[in-house]
Design a protein that fits this description.
CATH class of the largest domain: Alpha Beta
Strand order of the largest sheet: 4-5-10-6-7
CATH topology of the largest domain: Uridine Diphospho-n-acetylenolpyruvylglucosamine Reductase, domain 3
Shape: globular
CATH architecture of the largest domain: 2-Layer Sandwich
Number of helices: 11
Largest sheet: 5 strands, antiparallel
Order of helices and strands: EHEHEEEHHHHHHEEHEEEEEEEHH
Strand content: 15-25%
Radius of gyration: 19 Å
Number of strands: 14
Structural class: alpha+beta
Bound molecules: flavin-adenine dinucleotide
Number of domains: 3
Length: 266
């Protein structure tokens, strides 16, 4: 590690103020991505602004039909929250399946979304559920938030404050985890509201994406038979030491089929 200055702040305005006065500042949440990146010198900020002292950022509450989860809520807090379990049980399940216990006790919703790792779980939920990302300056629809691998619509210094999840009729998240890291080799979230079905896939490509042909077929007829002839083109998918693109395409379809069956049974 090299020298840096750690700033403890207790409100969002102070965090932004420190950011604006620094030439090279970064916010830190649980540090689960940032600290390893700093150790490897992939990131070398002069100023670290710790968001963990801002009390309102880890609140989880239900406001009418909307579930609001603060950006600093850890995965363990989300998994254990009775608000999340009753409003969006698929989000609680997803959070409980992230990494291992240590990762879940430090990693945060905001850090996961800001990082937009191609294999992260939360982006699939945010996209499939049509959630909104609330920042210090605006509210971004999920469809506009994820831009590319490790890239989001967040501007310089912008802080995610919370994510707002609307109520859906049914949702399921299934992932095929990498046995070592527990990151998704492929993760699929299906969500259904009235006749509309949304299918978001993580782990399979450079960034989370919606499988629009599957969505159209399932919105017409929510049954495994309606996607029988559909496939994902492997040439748009990741290939690495863990799985070929063809294998990932196959996994996506298998997980979508399993999610349909689980939702039809439940
Ligand atoms: C061993 C291991 C296994 C893991 N397995 C999984 C897994 O199975 N599934 C999964 O989804 N993830 C997994 N993760 C990722 C982990 O769960 C964290 O979500 C992720 O590392 C981000 O960490 P963090 O929340 O501590 O953010 P940090 O590391 O503190 O920050 C990450 C980035 O986000 C920015 N940032 C943080 N908070 C905000 C905010 N509120 N507003 C704006 N920018 C912000 C920071 O400036 C930084 O650039 C794993 C991580 C590890 C180390």
């Amino acid at each position: 590690m090299y020298q840096f200055k750690l700033h403890n702040v207790n409100d969002v305005a102070s965090a932004i103020d420190v950011f604006e006065r620094s030439d090279d500042a970064v916010y830190i949440a649980g540090g689960h991505t940032l600290i390893p990146a700093m150790k490897q010198r992939l990131s070398a900020p002069e100023d670290l602004i710790d968001l963990s002292g801002i009390p309102e950022l880890d609140l989880i509450q239900v406001d009418g039909e909307v579930l609001q989860i603060g950006a600093m809520a850890t995965h363990a807090m989300v998994a254990a929250s009775s608000h999340v379990q009753s409003h969006s049980p698929a989000v609680a399940d997803l959070a409980g399946g992230i990494g291992d216990r240590q990762v879940r006790y430090k990693g945060t919703l905001g850090g996961s979304l800001a990082n937009n790792d191609p294999a992260a779980d939360y982006p699939a939920a945010v996209l499939a559920l049509g959630a909104s990302v609330v920042t210090d300056r605006r509210t971004l629809a999920a469809d506009d938030f994820f831009i590319a691998m490790f890239e989001t619509a967040l501007e310089e210094g912008e802080i995610i404050q919370a994510v707002r999840f609307p109520q859906v009729d049914q949702a399921v998240y299934l992932k095929f985890p990498n046995p070592a890291s527990r990151y998704a080799m492929v993760g699929v979230m299906l969500a259904r509201r009235d006749q509309e079905v949304r299918v978001a896939i993580t782990g399979a490509a450079a960034s989370v994406f919606r499988a629009s042909t599957f969505e159209a077929a399932l919105s017409e007829n929510f049954a495994v038979s309606s996607i029988e002839d559909l496939t994902l083109a492997p040439d748009t998918l990741n290939a690495d030491m863990h799985a070929s693109a063809e294998y990932r395409a196959h996994l996506c379809k298998v997980l979508i089929e399993r999610a349909i069956r689980a939702m039809s049974a439940g």
